């Protein structure tokens, strides 16, 4: 069973799973200028995961997707609405309306509502509708009908759905002119290496911690015995151990419930000497010692630390890191820099 729900129509005249071409979009005069960067980032996120591109145009006349900002129902209710028209199975237009009653305002480099909802995620959700995705209730996703604090970027469900509509991106590092690119971590041009292992990600609703494992048996045990652990799909892939890989070590902090991962033997040894609450659990998985060995699928993860909850998070891609740095996951997150380099999940892993 597919882990996503499609609305029916799509952009482009081809069959499902083929390119959607370039879709134009525009904002009308009701949309504050501060909204634009979040809308651009949302389009960049979708185009990074599917064979469809977007072009911002000045006029709403003739634009494929149009944005407006007007009152819907007030604070913390309906954040946005998307309506569309289509002919046969092909979109002809889509209109996205943000609820002006949410009290949107600039907060640093991003826009949030009075209740702290990040506009980037609302735009990501509504654009998903404008591209052909319906609400999904089977697990964490941007396309959930109710936003979840644990979802800060596209999940395996969202990516599976958008690729069912438009296929995988033909050139993941390219975004249509008019849409700013989020910095990419891809390096090299070699083909996808063999011997990749899915890394499964869970979110612990009790502690706010994310947990990662390559063990299918451990994954199943968690699903059966730990109801507070919410499964979020395959976050990334890791290589088999070899000459070009390095160990990633796993710790469990008994004081906070945090799981901590590092590829640094020096950091591992320092933790063992100075942090008695950190319980060493051994090697979790492998990472690439040289990012170029991962080829075009290289994914260099950012490590974040929350100064309030004292948990760590490892952004699964550049878009997720961008979202966290721009407030999508709430306050208190400090970007600690590069964690290690892994590989993007393959198509077969996304809904595993």
Automatic annotation (TrEMBL):
One of its GO terms (biological process) is proteolysis. InterPro entries: DUF5648 (IPR043708), MetalloPept_cat_dom_sf (IPR024079), Pept_M10_metallopeptidase (IPR001818), Pept_M10A (IPR021190), Peptidase_Metallo (IPR006026). Residues 170-193 are annotated as: Disordered. The keyword Disulfide bond does not apply. Pfam families: DUF5648, Peptidase_M10. Residues 172-193 have a biased composition (Low complexity). GO terms for cellular component: extracellular matrix. Transmembrane segments: none annotated. It comes from the Bacteria. Residues 7-168 form the Peptidase metallopeptidase domain. Keywords: Hydrolase, Metal-binding, Metalloprotease, Protease, Zinc. One of its GO terms (molecular function) is metalloendopeptidase activity. Coiled coil: none annotated. The keyword Hydrolase applies. PANTHER family: MATRIX METALLOPROTEINASE (PTHR10201), MATRIX METALLOPROTEINASE-21 (PTHR10201:SF323). This is Matrixin family metalloprotease. It comes from Methylobacterium planeticum.
